[in-house]
Write a structure and sequence with these properties.
Elements: E1 3-10, E2 13-20, E3 29-34, H1 44-55, E4 59-64, H2 69-73, H3 77-93, E5 98-104, H4 106-112, E6 119-125, H5 137-140, E7 166-171, H6 179-187, E8 191-196, H7 207-218
Parallel strand pairs: 3-4, 3-5, 5-6, 6-7, 7-8
Antiparallel strand pairs: 1-2, 2-4
Length: 222
């Protein structure tokens, strides 16, 4: 399976990036990965999923812009969204006609509140989106995450602009399910909520099911 490691440069910083491409080398579609706060995009379930996507004819791009909670806390939502936009642009610059996102947990907050225009679909692994009564993103977008005492104040209106098909996967043992999962699905204009029995927020309890659902959602017809 072709694996290319590269320097991913954005905002004056350089991070590790990795493209995984299908064995034949040609692909029209690429998936960009946005991981959760507690687990980077390399290793474990992410590696397995990227290789299975490649076997299904879909390339992937992962980048690691934080390696600790302290590094993440020093970032702003605006910086994280700029990184995602740069990653999507990079896949498009390489000639991929179709770009999708795979977002895990905190990655859902990054993507759903400012989805890059080139993205055609999104798969969420247990997005950690909890709605506040009122949005505070206008004031919070440029504030380091560590300076936000109560986290990001995301309201349903902040995700209403996501107008591409979204598949949301949650385990029935996840603390975000059912209340927050159902609220997010209702707030998105075109979302399907799928529940995985026996899975929790780690997405490691039933890996084969997670990978199969992911490939089905991201390797289908665009």
């Amino acid at each position: 399976m072709p694996l290319e490691q590269l320097d991913f440069e954005v905002g004056g910083e350089t991070y590790e990036g990795r493209f995984v491409t299908p064995p034949a080398g040609d692909a029209e579609a690429c998936v960009v990965v946005v991981p959760g706060a507690g687990h980077g995009p390399f290793g474990d379930i992410f590696d397995i999923t990227m290789y299975e996507l490649a076997n299904a004819g879909v390339a992937s791009f992962r980048y690691e812009s934080w390696t600790s909670s302290d590094e993440l806390d020093a970032k702003t939502l605006a910086a994280l969204q700029a990184e995602l936009q740069a990653a999507v642009d990079q896949t498009a610059d390489r000639g991929y006609e179709h770009v999708s996102l795979l977002v895990k947990s905190f990655g859902g907050r990054i993507a759903f509140t400012d989805l890059p225009e080139r993205v055609e679909r999104v798969l969420g692994w247990a997005p950690a989106v909890v709605f506040a009564d009122d949005s505070g993103l206008d004031e919070q977008r440029d504030v380091p995450l560590d300076d936000l005492d109560d986290g990001l104040d995301i309201a349903p209106t902040d995700v209403a602009g996501v107008d591409v098909p979204v598949t949301l996967l949650y385990g029935d043992e996840d603390h975000f399910y059912p209340e927050h999962a159902e609220a997010l699905a209702d707030a998105l204009s075109d979302a399907e909520l799928r529940v995985l029995p026996g899975e929790n927020h780690s997405f490691n309890a039933r890996r084969r099911v997670v990978v199969a659902e992911t490939v089905a959602a991201l390797a289908g017809e665009h």
